[in-house]
Amino acid sequence: MVEQVTKGIKVSVETHFEGAFSKNSEVFYAFGYTITISNNSRDTVKLLSRCWTIYDSLNDIEQVTGEGVIGKKPVLQPGEQHRYTSGCLLKSPFGAMNGYYTMINFNNSTQFQVMIPTFKLNSKFNLN
């Protein structure tokens, strides 16, 4: 597990390899990740959007942006957590992801970015 704290918001990430499959004569590697967002600050915050950078070991880099996470824009009171699971496909058995969430602090109406730490995506069957 990797973790990072930004302005009292802790992001923890766990990853797992889902398997490989072929589609139109191309092999894809599926990875899942579970993210826990913990509000360790004194303020109420809301997650507005996400921005991901996905790195494939074949040197492919993809940017993904969008509102919320898996269709939700959670509001976190001090001490609360939000956990969700999502995934991505790579063309190689190794890669990494990182990014940030844009959040708003309800106490002072300011937006800020919460960093998502870089986490590795590894298919265990390819490791020595």
TrEMBL record:
The residue range of the signal peptide is: none
InterPro entries, from UniProt?
ApaG_domain (IPR007474), ApaG_sf (IPR036767)
Domain ApaG span(s) in chain numbering: 3-128
Query: What's the short name of a Pfam family annotated to this entry?
Result: DUF525
* Highest taxon above the source species: Bacteria
What name has this protein been given in UniProt? Co2+/Mg2+ efflux protein ApaG
**From which source organism is this entry?**
Leeuwenhoekiella parthenopeia
